[in-house]
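Section 5.1 Outputs to date
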Amino acid sequence: MPRDKDGHELIALTFGMESSASLWNVIFEGFDQEVVLVSKFSGSDDRVVNTLYEFGDIIGRNYKDCKVKATRTGIEIKKPFPRNDVSLVNEWTGLMESIRDEMTKFIPDAFEARPGR
């Protein structure tokens, strides 16, 4: 993952999960509850954050089954799934990591300071 001049990732990506299931539901009904996967993309400077906003607009227009919210440092994508399935979570995680890689390619001057370029 490309880094800025201070050694930080240009785009930080974190994951979370939200669910309306209570401990009672999990104990008596199992883990197959509806969940919302949350992916947060954040950047430390304006050029990165602006790139994230642009991608957030594109994702929001083209994918109606997820919600995109702008934050102070980037974007948050929420995607509901009908059940907590490890294979779906892994697939979503891989997709978000690929999107982060694509976004990085569009950050102005992202690769200028890297040696060998």
